[in-house]
Amino acid sequence: MAATTHPAGPWSAATRTVDHGNGTFLVAGPASNWIIVRDGNRFLLIDAGYPADLAHVLASLRHLGLEPAEASAVLLTHAHVDHMGGAAYFARQFGTPVLCSPQELPQVQGRIPRQQVTLLRVLAGAWRPRVLRWMVSALRSGALRAQPVETASAWTPEALQQLPGSPLPILLPGHTDGSSALYLPAAKAAVTGDAVVTGHPLSGWTGPQLTLPMFSLNPTRAAEALTALRGLDATLVLPGHGPALRKPLQAVVQQALRAAGFTGER
Predict the structure, then answer these.
(1) Confidence at residue 107, expressed as pLDDT on a 0 to 100 scale
(2) Which of these CATH numbers, 3.60.15.10, 1.10.10.60, 3.30.70.100, 3.90.79.10, describes 13-259?
(3) What is the spatial distance between Cα 107 and Cα 22, in angstroms, rounded to a whole number?
(4) pLDDT of residue 8
(5) Which of 43, 97, 159, 178 could be cross-linked to 103 through a Cys-Cys bond (beta carbons 3.0 to 4.6 Å apart)?
């Protein structure tokens, strides 16, 4: 199975929520993905879209017959606005635990600025039509309205093992200091966040790729960090942007590195 694509047209939870087996679902939001992992009536949410995607996040859960208030946790791969947008709502409205890597916690809690592309940097490239369209879309999605989650806490491997899917965290610094992937053993799936993606409006193509350098704190470090994914028995890649891929993780990583101009064994 290659990339899973979604029909064009108005956003719909029914068409944008794809079952990848073993209780694992990827939901393609208007601009970024979130993942739902369920075990019976227990479930967790990995990432939470832009702030304006909250209604879509809630709709995707209810489409699966799940009550948002009953989420076991919200896990964040990193603190960028297009991944943590709905997290503050879950924490405030339902008391849902919001968890991230220890290195990412100060950003999620709002104690230090988020390590993401600045508006000034985007404006510098807004003369390009594709950048301008993306900037307008991001602003409409609430890019300037992300709320910190003061009650967030750092995950531990032991705590994650008690959650649906028993996710295993893999720290991948570079995109941000605490950017992480999560491995779901039963599904043999790697949730890669922005460490490896399969599409983005600014890249203009679909396939394994690294996030564009403008979005990463340290692009070279981000590429080098992918060595931590070696040895994972993952045959399904669930990225933060772009369609899912049913393909061995290591092959996806190597293809993404080559596409970004990183050659040789890492």
Answers:
(1) 97
(2) 3.60.15.10
(3) 32
(4) 54
(5) 178
The Cα–Cα gap between 158 and 161 comes to: 5
- Copy the structure tokens of residue 234: 């993952």
Enumerate the β-bridge partners of residue 154: 100
Tell me the residue type at 67.
E
Given a contact cutoff of 8 angstroms between Cβ atoms, the answer to whether 183 and 196 are in contact is no
Answer for the pair 15, 44: CB distance below 8 angstroms, yes or no.
no
Digit-coded pLDDT (tens) for 181-194: 999 999 999 999 99
Strands of 189-193's sheet, edge to edge? 168-171, 180-184, 189-193, 236-239
> Minimal CA–CA distance to 222: which of 169, 252, 179, 265?
179
- C-alpha 40, offset from chain centre: 23
Domain borders along the chain are 13-259
DSSP strands (E only) in 139-219: 153-154, 168-171, 180-184, 189-193, 197-199, 206-209
How many whole angstroms separate alpha carbon 241 and alpha carbon 220? 20
- In the three-class reduction of DSSP (H, G, I as helix; E, B as strand; rest coil), residue 3 is classed as coil
Of 14, 3, 1, 4, nearest to 61 by C-alpha is 14
pLDDT grade for 143, boundaries at 50, 70 and 90: confident
Beta strand segments in the chain, E: 17-19, 24-28, 33-39, 42-46, 74-75, 98-100, 153-154, 168-171, 180-184, 189-193, 197-199, 206-209, 236-239
Provide the mean pLDDT of the chain: 92
Choose among 92, 81, 82: nearest CA to 32. Answer: 82
Span 101-134, pLDDT tens digits:
999 999 999 999 999 877 777 777 777 778 778 7
